[in-house]
Design goal:
- The protein is of the alpha+beta class.
- A hairpin with a 2-residue loop joins β1 and β2.
- α1 packs across α2.
């Protein structure tokens, strides 16, 4: 089984003209990556164990191989945002140690 990732990255350049910001350039790149699930799990397991099961270091180690993996801080922010939204909708009971 393969894992396929479509990674898009964009840069917007703003220019301040006559007291307002205007988009002066837009640069978008797109890359497709394919990795086997087996290879991904092997790399993840190896890096996780090499980093003494530290999630932050594991995420950064995986980014060295797979540029499309978000940083630990990005993952942590997204997790906390998602958790907050789910709690607000009463989908999840409070999880005290997640914050």
């Amino acid at each position: 089984m393969d894992i396929m990732v479509n990674h898009r990255k964009g840069t917007i350049t703003l220019t301040y003209v006559k007291e307002q910001w205007k988009v002066s350039a837009l640069d978008v790149s797109e890359n497709e990556y394919t990795v086997t699930a087996k290879e991904y799990v092997e790399n993840l397991t190896k890096i996780y164990n090499e980093n003494e099961q530290d999630i932050s270091k594991t995420a950064e180690g995986m980014r060295q191989i797979y540029s499309w993996i978000p940083s630990y801080n990005t993952l942590d922010k997204a997790f906390k945002k998602m958790l907050k939204e789910y709690r607000e909708r009463n989908f999840l009971a409070p999880i005290e140690d997640a914050e």
